[in-house]
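ZP: hey, is the KE4 complex queued? I don't see it on the tracker
AM: it wasn't, my bad. submitting now with these inputs:
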Amino acid sequence: MKPLNTKRSETLFTRAQKHIPGGVNSPVRAFHAVGRSPLFIRKAKGATIWDEDGNAFIDYVGSWGPMILGHAHPSILGAIGKVMKHGTSFGAPTDLEVRVAELIKTCIPSIEMVRMVNSGTEATMSAIRLARAYTSRDKIIKFEGCYHGHGDSFLIKAGSGAMTLGVPDSPGVPSSVAASTLTARYNDLESVRELTLASAGHVAAIIVEPVVGNMGCVPPAEGFLQGLRQICDEQKIVLIFDEVMTGFRVALGGAQELYRVKPDLTTLGKIIGGGLPVGAYGGKREIMQLVAPAGPMYQAGTLSGNPLAMAAGYAMLSTLSKSRSFYVKLEKKSMQLEEGIRGNLRTIGLELTLNRVGSMFTLFFTDHAVTDYTSAAKAERPRFADYFRGMLARGIYLPPSQFEAAFLSAAHSDRDIEKTIAANLITLRQVYKPQVM
Ligand code: KE4
């Protein structure tokens, strides 16, 4: 197999590191976990991305989730083009913001009111401030390995890039803030009960990825989300579903539709911006009414509800909500890929763990079940790195970390999936030779 020519990316990376910390504007993009320098992407269309050296890849990162329709989708580009002629930002309310809010509420009925922000981090930071304001309590409970953005309260045993880079507890977070964040074990209701009883009357919120993407894909165990709902009801704790990744991904109504559990607040991001910077938080009216200027809890943003982002988001959500067959077809595609990889594992006599929920999935380099942070951490990272590089060389662009979810889009063709399955077989054989047939 011809080695990849990535000269231009390497030159750009050397230049970038002189001006930008680590040469990237978000850590996980630096490819630290996969033993090679990152690719600089020039353009993308559908399921394909092209790097600066002209190499084409089938993309399973999808900008970390937003690209569920595929890149450069005509309805998204058309919507942005139409709106941008009339200006890019006004710092004033617009009709589009109202339409996006109404559409989000239609798709996610637990959201009675919603506030737009500019990122998932802003959404989760605002949601916990709101929960604290609503309950007059200070503590929050998160789960080891879950990632809710880079807000101080969340960088405690965090997943995603923090887990990848081995800084799950970032320096710079004041101990006073860290002390208000309690961490439980995902899929372990007993660990939650222990914390809530030990801090009875002091826990404002439990925030959870209802399907984890940031340890790699880890589904909720049977009854886990229902158990959190029960604990929150009993102890008047605000249940926050962080659906920045799962919202409009695992179902039109997100994980709360899939698992039929209603949170008090939901955070959103990624898909709802169609690739432009958007986050949102919303939920029960009686809680959301506390948000300024309706109430005293302050949160603001110069570019919140930005017209271009709202145009992209409205086009995205309208396309997704137009027909329910969208998710049926996406599930079929995702199943096809899963079955292909499972067939490969059987062919070569290898036992690896593949977790999938809808069109988000992770192949873990371990034969153990992966149900929480401890079991995810057992995955063999060097093997994953070898696999990543082998797949890249075969034209498959995966998330550059064992602790991230990969994403399929509506643009992935049968041919793309067959090529991925073929590359998976050859690469697994290469990574595990001579153990495998
Ligand atoms: P942003 O601030 O990156 O828009 O969203 C933070 C966030 C919040 N909640 C969940 C469940 C998330 O997955 C994220 C961000 N996800 C990562 C990928 N695992 C973003 C990629 C990156 O950090 O570059």
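AM: back. The pocket of KE4 is lined by residues 26, 28, 64, 119-121, 124, 147-149, 160-161, 209, 213-214, 242, 244-245, 269, 279, 404 (CB under 6 Å).
ZP: great, adding it to the tracker
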